[in-house]
Amino acid sequence: MTFLSCLTDDTDLVLDSSVIINLLATGHAPSILRALAVSIAVTGNVLREIERGAANGRPEFELLTAMVNEGVLRVEELEGRALETLFDLVSGTIAESLDDGEAATLAFAHGSGFCAAIDEKKATRVATERFGSLRLVTTIDILAHKSVRASLGEKVLANATFNALRVARMQAREHQFEWIADLIGSENVDACSSLRRLVKRRSTIRDL
Question: Per-residue DSSP letters for 186-198?
Fold first, then answer.
């Protein structure tokens, strides 16, 4: 099945923590991001959020720092109106507030005209309600981009996507399921918790 990534060729990106973790789990994060040939940023809030995970022995901070040092992406600190937006997004009720990394990603994207790469459904909902014109993409949109597919090749891309799903538990959306299943092979779907949930949901809908 053909799945069309909603990531366009001229879209600069700011990456949330979940997207960074997913991409690092692929084993090919630098190649994937370089293939996009756009400006890619991560907020200092997200960098520090991932750094805190290093205290528990997680490897992502070291890998992310290496990509920053190699110029694959750059770190941006929020200021001015973007900082005000961040404070607004982390305030309020549990149902409406976001964590620091998600809020910073959306605040920077909203203030800079970047596209926000973010996977969490709550953050996606809040962004849609608060910032109607803000462009959003998921990790899978990045992996399915034509430049990434051409750069990695289908075999490497399939293995990279499977790693992100299995190791990082990358989330998938309903409209992305068929493309992912075709890419990684239907025999590997059951090994991925997010895909098992989609299979169960799709089965329930068919039985209604």
Answer: GGGGGG-HHHHHH
